[in-house]
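User: quick one, sequence for these tokens?
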């Protein structure tokens, strides 16, 4: 998979997610992003490497997001502004190719999109390729974690596949190693159940369910691969959208190029995982 570019794409529309409860005045959030004063531009410059042109562009895109989704403008100005700074600091675009701004009870939540997680994963020099897929009932599928992690999956392209039964992630490393992660339907639904926006009947889990299944596998699997600094921050931000934090992630694996790095990865994964398992559909 070719690494996405790091230059943010044009702003994509953030989904409208219904009325906001306990919201302040309707224009508080709007004013927070429309007032391009020097102080706000300086704040953004601090998280985008001092680039004033980029900072001013972020301000324009954030203002555009609020105009497209009025519920964002009804949120607390401080919450909206912090969310804008968070996304700018990750150097991601707003929307499906980066991160969503989602209103929730007068606050703004940052939800990193699957493409955004992949983009951030590629910023670590040891990550070679990343993919995540949904598996449906009836599709040939098999997984093994040892002696070498491997997944085989053949989707049914004639439209006869059944309901979703799980999702997986595969990351290939420059050192020759591979990390795979599999989540059953029940495990994905546990993640969905603690999403604040899903509990309100709105948000990405409602509008883009398949993408969120892929993201669930990506997010859990990324805990076992070398992480860029931005990816670590994005995972922390994304956890804030849940009512209950997921189980504490192990520290990111520290690998060095060469066969020794691959061996170290295998040893660490072996200690973290249960005995080898295989799943056949």
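Assistant:
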């Amino acid at each position: 998979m070719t690494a996405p570019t790091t230059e943010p794409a044009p702003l994509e529309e953030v989904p409208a997610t219904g009325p906001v409860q306990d919201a302040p005045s309707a224009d508080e959030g709007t004013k927070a992003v429309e007032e391009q004063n020097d102080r706000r531009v300086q704040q953004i410059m601090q998280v985008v490497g001092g680039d004033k042109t980029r900072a001013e562009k972020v301000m324009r895109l954030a203002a555009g997001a609020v105009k497209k989704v009025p519920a964002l403008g009804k949120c607390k100005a401080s919450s909206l502004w912090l969310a804008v700074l968070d996304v700018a600091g990750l150097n991601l675009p707003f929307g499906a190719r980066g991160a969503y701004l989602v209103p929730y009870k007068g606050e703004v939540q940052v939800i990193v999109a699957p493409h955004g997680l992949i983009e951030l994963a590629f910023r670590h020099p040891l990550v070679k390729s990343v993919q995540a897929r949904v598996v449906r009932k009836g599709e040939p599928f098999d997984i093994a974690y040892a002696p070498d992690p491997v997944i085989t999956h053949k989707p049914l392209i004639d439209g006869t596949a059944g309901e979703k039964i799980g999702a997986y992630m595969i990351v290939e490393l420059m050192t020759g190693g591979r990390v795979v992660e599999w989540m059953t339907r029940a495990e994905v639904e546990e993640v969905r159940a603690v999403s604040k926006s899903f509990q309100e009947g709105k948000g990405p889990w409602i509008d883009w369910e398949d993408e969120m299944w892929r993201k669930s596998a990506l997010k859990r699997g990324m805990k076992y691969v070398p992480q860029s600094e931005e990816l670590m921050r994005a995972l922390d931000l994304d956890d804030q959208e849940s009512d209950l934090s997921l189980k504490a992630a192990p520290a990111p694996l520290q690998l060095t190029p060469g066969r020794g790095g691959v061996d170290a990865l295998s040893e660490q994964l072996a200690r973290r995982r249960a005995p080898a398992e295989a799943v056949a559909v």
